[in-house]
Amino acid sequence: MNYTPAADAPERPAQPLEQSRLDLAVIAEMVAPGARVLDVGCGDGALLQLLAQKKGVDGRGVELSQRGVNECVAKGLSVIQGDADTDLSDYPDDGFDYVILSQTLQATRRPRAALANMLRIGRRAIISFPNFGYWRVRAQLAFSGRMPVTGRLDYHWHDTPNIHLCTIRDFVEIVDELGAHIERGVAFDRAGAPIRFSAPWWVWNLFGEQAVFLLERGDQRR
Amino acid sequence: MSEARPAYGEGFAPKTVVFSPDRPLLTDGGGRIAPLAIAYETRGTLNAARSNAILLCHALTGDQYAAGVNPVTGKPGWWEAMVGPGKPFDTDRYFLICSNVVGGCMGTTGPASINPTTGKPYGVDFPVVTIRDMVRAQAMLIDHLGIETLFCVAGGSMGGMQVLQWAASYPERVFSAMPIATAAKHSAQNIAFHEVGRQAVMADPDWRSGRYQEQGVRPEKGLAVARMSAHITYLSEAALQRKFGRKLQDRSAPTFSFDADFQVENYLRYQGLAFVERFDANSYLFVTRACDYFDLAADYGGSLAMAFKDTKTRFCVVSFTSDWLYPTSDSRAIVHALNAGGASVSFVEIESDKGHDAFLLHEPMFIATTRGFLDSAANARGLAPDGTSK
């Protein structure tokens, strides 16, 4: 059997930003101009910069890695070092218009608590995540009998930061449990093409490689 | 008010503003300081809009000489790594102001100054001052310079406490703020170390109940011990190990005596001796006391967040991993309060093994962070790279 330890695996080719972080453009499109935004797990600050440029938002970030925080601050962004699992509870209610969690939900220890906190801190929450219900993911597990490694989920099972993977259906269910309301949802296929909003859920869940949801706090519904 | 020039070395002309007795500094402790002299230095040029001024706040035993050659010690200023043309605190772009704190001994009124009611040095009769009193005095200086809003107030350690106090007391006058390696309150451990220092000073027979000036002596041994113990708290164990370990000084074997056998002993003795050359023992008592009394939240009903409620100031909080005197947890408490108050805040913990002193040293990540923060704040303030208002 041909066994390759992860450490010896060849470097993955870098993808162009537009393609690798397609969700950022979609998220930016969902945010109202001039809004107050908290980006949880903001990485190197790419989304915050995009939001500042395109939407003139008053953006803040929280990032776990020191390297990411330092890069953000050197870019002039308001970012603090912190952990989505422990630090969100320090934020007061209604401090922001939008709280964003892009490609981070699956790496949190308590995703449900993180989502609840987001909807408490912000009137609206935007979450993007890789869909574990995507057909290629299902096919890999079904046919090779091994944990899937795909473009969106490009880690081996033993060294992945992604500990709480979910499907679009799972996500919709937890949103319901939290009493929140889905204002908008977008799913993309592998080529980055959006799947029509009118398509039934099972189509989204099967053909969406990643998804972006705009949630509204339940008590905002009239 | 009058501009005076105290007699220092030749070629050196520090600026001092003296506020006449009809403009006393009323202290938190119920004291009254008048006349009040404030010694300060400036670098760079104030632009026409008066919008590019930065106030640098010095640490416990610092002074107004942040950059350039300190005329008293002959050594580079305390923030030489950060201040100058092209450096983060760019003197080509900003107008830098650095004053000596009230209670200090470098030209600003302090315990060594003459008490106008007795005609003798104040000594320990000087009013006990607080960080807020220091900031009040600085605000008088900033008023005197005709500056409405400071572009930035920055400083580390005790200077960082002043930064926090500035942001709390005068939020509308502080566009951006950098509290570095500091805390919103002095911990029991901090107070304990300061008490060791004060007791060392007061145990020196030459302290003479604080009246040593009149009797022509100085409690140098006590002050040197105070400095030695404080100096240890500014370093980290890793830095001390790297620099000295258990290496012996000028000998190959221990002498089995109380000579300075170890290099680290020699180093501390040198630090203590160099310090008494430039610092007044009574000032040391007063500035350490000011730090001990600092508890910003206490002034706002115990809630630090209330101190920064609705602030428009942009903050950048910085801590260092090996700083055990003002650990990162102290900075986090400040950041949490600022977040709760809805403030614009960045927070960076810089990886360094140089201990508390790291903020004074050449730390590339710290320099990059400061540059990034100031650049973005300058853009928001409409400052062109040459310091003019856009």
From TrEMBL, chain A:
CDD domains: AdoMet_MTases (cd02440). InterPro entries: Methionine_synth_MetW, SAM-dependent_MTases_sf. It comes from the Bacteria. Signal peptide: none annotated. It holds the Pfam family MetW. NCBIfam families: metW (TIGR02081). This is Methionine biosynthesis protein MetW. The gene is metW.
